[in-house]
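4.2 Preliminary Data

To establish feasibility before requesting continued support, the project team ran the inverse folding procedure on a target of 262 residues. The structure was first converted into the token representation described in Section 3, and no sequence information of any kind was made available to the design step. The complete token record follows.
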């Protein structure tokens, strides 16, 4: 189906912005340590999570309300995981110790569960660090990763590096590897600060500056590496064997994998 451009501000309410304080919303159970990230498919209304560390860890699938649905061995040492609304597929990047990295695509059935194997879309290292988690910018058809206060942009066509850009993050130190994309102009890039205070940072992709800070409820903790994710307008924090999901975007700014706001 044709997708409206998520950067079309004419369909957004005036002064729309992320929440000032994140709101507890959903829980995904049975989450192990070193969980890599979270993806959401608006097509299947499913959440997907993956664990970093070894290729033997399964891909986990959850329903729209957080109920555990299934686990699938997929032989992938996951790092990033995202829904691509252009191809309507679940995609990922994996650990890369040299030039052995890859961008992968998974075969899903009509119910959104894993129904087959994986296809390699791009071979080679399309990430700044071996551990980097990628996310998908569907407006520019680019892959993004964060590393050492810099934003890296990679071509989804061939995996080539488009740009390496320094970010102005002020006093904040984000999670080492995690990044998200919203599709909301002026707040496109999501980072997760773990010090001096745990916050969700929204960065303007054009100016490379923080344009909004969302505070987290008392007790919510951002890890210094892995164990966080952004999907469906929510930030997910791994806490005591579960992903606690917090809403950080209002309904009219949730870009469901590239779909325009209602």
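Position-by-position output of the design step:
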């Amino acid at each position: 189906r044709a997708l409206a451009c998520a950067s079309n501000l004419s369909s957004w309410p005036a002064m729309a912005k992320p929440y000032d304080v994140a709101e507890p919303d959903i829980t995904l159970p049975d989450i192990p340590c070193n969980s890599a990230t979270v993806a959401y498919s608006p097509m299947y209304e499913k959440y997907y999570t993956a664990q970093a560390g070894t290729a033997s860890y399964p891909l986990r699938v959850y329903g729209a309300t957080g109920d555990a649905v299934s686990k699938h061995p997929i032989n992938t040492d996951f790092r990033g995981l995202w829904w691509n609304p252009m191809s309507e597929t679940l995609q990922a990047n994996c650990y890369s110790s040299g030039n052995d990295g890859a961008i992968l695509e998974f075969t899903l059935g009509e119910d959104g569960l894993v129904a087959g194997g994986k296809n390699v879309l791009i071979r080679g290292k399309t990430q700044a660090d071996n551990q980097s988690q990628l996310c998908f910018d569907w407006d520019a058809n680019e892959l993004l990763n964060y590393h050492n206060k810099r934003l890296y942009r990679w071509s989804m066509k061939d995996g080539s590096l488009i740009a390496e850009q320094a970010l102005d993050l002020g006093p904040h130190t984000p999670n080492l590897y995690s990044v998200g994309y919203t599709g909301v102009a002026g707040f496109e890039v999501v980072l997760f600060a773990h010090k001096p205070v745990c916050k969700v940072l929204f960065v303007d992709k054009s100016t490379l500056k923080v344009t909004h800070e969302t505070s987290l409820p008392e007790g919510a903790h951002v890890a210094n590496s892995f164990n966080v994710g952004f999907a469906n307008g929510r930030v997910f924090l791994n806490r005591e064997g579960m992903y606690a999901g917090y809403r950080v975007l209002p309904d009219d700014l949730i870009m469901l994998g590239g779909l325009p706001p209602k």
